[in-house]
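ok trying this again, last paste got cut off
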Amino acid sequence: MKRQYDLDWIRVIATLAVFIYHCFMFFNPWPWHVKNNETDPTYITAVSLFMSSWLMPIFFTVSGMSSYYALQKRSGNEFVKERLARLGIPLLFGVMILTPPQVYMERVSHDQFSGTFFSWFPQYFNGVYLDIGGAGNFAFVGLHLWYLFILMLFSIITLPFFLKKNPTITKELKSYQLYLMTIPLMIVSTFVDVVRLGGWDITFYLVLFFFGYYILTKESFKKVIQKLLPINLVISVCTTIFFVYGFISGMTSTGFIAAMVFASIKALNCWTWILAIFAVAERHLSFSNKWLSYSSQASMPFYVLHQPVIVTLGFFIANEAWSIPVKLIFLMVVAFFIIMLLYQFIISKVSILRILFGIKGIKKPKSSPDVKIVGS
């Protein structure tokens, strides 16, 4: 099968966007593990809202598509083993090694504990961590690694459906069908409340995961989204303005009808941005080069590492008397270089670390057998 390089680029760019989003979380007014001594309710909050509407949804949409392509080359058992290795191992490593320092810094910054990390660590297994500032400490989903946990869960529970019924790839996809797909997203966004992660309920992600597998892998999908790109960009921009203004002005708290309208507009905003991003990526990013090869491999370690590094740096600079722009630039630049240095000079060089961070270990070169020359 032809490699979908545009999907690789989307993954890489979305991973970088998550890094930027979590740097912004240190400064916006929303609850987070550590917060700056001054927050910004204007431009940083507006950018955070814009990114939150499509960022994690596009990860699950791409993951649904990737599941289809993976199952064309692997059996069900091979698929599960690959998911457990690529997602489960980094998740377990994150829960046991990378998460405890973050929970400790959250407790200290929220005045819930005073003392050293080692004096606090035995408390890590006291209760289940369910929310920022809550009482439980054991974060079984690894805080930001919840994406790996939910994706692993989705991959396992949907496998029987995927193996039983593959999508009809050659069936022509109509433009109106893509907009009809907004309806279930609106219904879930408005009426379903199971567990909210990353700004959306997990059932919203599940719907997108199915869409990615069954709809977005159709051959006609790319042709249709190119035709709809101008319309989707207009809808995306208009609904973003409505969504950001509505959130900041407190529209969701003005009544049930207003909250329904807000949730529906937010779902439409998410879906049209996803379609627009796929169209732009297919048009301009359907190629490979050395940067894509490098960043595709580095993206999983980068994702696993980025929040612990941001939280640690934020913990130490939170009370410095710097302006928000200075702190933001410092946080983004220093955190990025720390992560990339750790990846380039340590993680990528050590086979066991590669596996712990979700990439394949270093292959040992095969030794050539001794060749005997007959008759010499």
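PB: full thing came through this time. The chain has 14 helices and two strands.
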